[in-house]
Design brief:
With about 140 residues, the protein is mainly α. About 75% of the residues lie in helices and about 5% in strands. It has seven helices and two strands; from the N terminus they run H-E-E-H-H-H-H-H-H. The protein starts with a helix and ends with a helix.
Length: about 140
């Protein structure tokens, strides 16, 4: 009897965990359509039309390079695994991932243009700090 109860509990917990993981995958697939700015889910990059219209060709290439940096550094799958195993996402980790994606854009020749984008459209003090950091790197 106790064995049956434990088996049922284990199956229930596994099912709940699997449902949580599937929910996170679904959220990941639709996230680019829910975010107001450029975004990647690791499969594709979405830059909303209003953002594309506000950028020149170099700036758009810089934004795409930054998003490609998230893909190249495997940020999205790593974040998904952490979420499935209930590891909390920290502000420090998110910021580190943004800096890594910025560095990818710099390595591909888009640092100055990305700095311009962050200066013009950055919403947070961290965005402005990233712009200053990029300008220091590309000089």
């Amino acid at each position: 009897m106790l064995h049956d109860s434990l088996t049922w509990l284990a199956q229930f917990l596994f099912g709940a965990w699997l449902g949580w993981c599937l929910w996170n995958v679904l959220e990941l697939l639709v996230a680019p359509f829910l975010v107001d700015g450029p975004c990647t889910n690791g499969l594709w990059i979405r830059v909303p039309a209003r953002v594309r219209a506000a950028l020149d060709a170099d700036e758009l290439a810089a934004v795409l390079a930054h998003e490609m940096g998230h893909i190249a550094r495997w940020h999205v799958p790593a974040n998904l695994v952490r979420r499935c195993f209930l590891v909390s996402d920290t502000l420090e980790r998110r910021r580190q991932q943004e800096l890594e994606a910025d560095d990818y854009a710099v390595a591909h020749g888009h640092g100055a243009a990305l700095a311009r984008v962050l200066k013009r459209f950055g919403r947070t003090p961290f965005d402005r700090a990233r712009a200053r950091r990029l300008l220091g790197i590309v000089r």
